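Hi support team,

I'm filing this because I wasn't sure whether my run with calcium ion finished correctly. The job status page said complete, but I'd like someone to confirm that the output block is well-formed before I use it downstream. Pasting the exact inputs I used:
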Amino acid sequence: MQHKNSLLAVLGMLTVVTAAASAATVDLAYSSYDVDQDGWQVRDTVNGVTSYFQPGWVPVGGVPTGHLEFADVTPGGYVFEAPTQFTGDFSAAFNNGGVSFDWMADMVQSGKRASVIFWSGNIRLSAASNPDPAPNVWHSFDFTFDTSVSWMVNYGSGGASQLATMNEINSVLANVTGMDITGETWTGINETTWLDNPRIYMNVPAPGALALLGVASIIGSRRRRG
Ligand SMILES: [Ca+2]
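And here is everything the job wrote out:
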């Protein structure tokens, strides 16, 4: 009887393991903004002149709490600029992960999108929401590092952006020198934008699942010996 119960317990665990295994990710870089701005800055460019500002930190609201807020200050364009934890080699997530963030704007001009931009020197790799995001609601964007997303690459020599190949996506991810997320959503000085939970993640076999399989195997062998 005891043996049968333990077998049922093992089967129950295996069911949990299967459910967990499909959803496991590891964060390679992540800002929750639970306690502060976590090193993020706002970079504003107007007529070729770049200035840095500290975004506001809002302790409540967001997704689910602490987040960034920035109200436009110049007629130029601004972005949220990631700190150095979002730079380096992220090729482990290539074709096996992505970048996600929660984002909101109070005004969105026609054609303005929420984008994430990776820099590798002068090379720019970007993905954008489609269609234009609705104003005044939080959006959760998730762009995987593969060609199911329309990643655009630009080599910075004045040429047009092109649809990126897998090789180009991999090459930028292997040497990320900067990451930006859209701030500006309206021409002029009108809008406010909010950001929460930027994350670069990779998919992995659930470590908890492997541990549970180990436990299940130990229980099974103990019962067999008993
Ligand atoms: Ca948060």
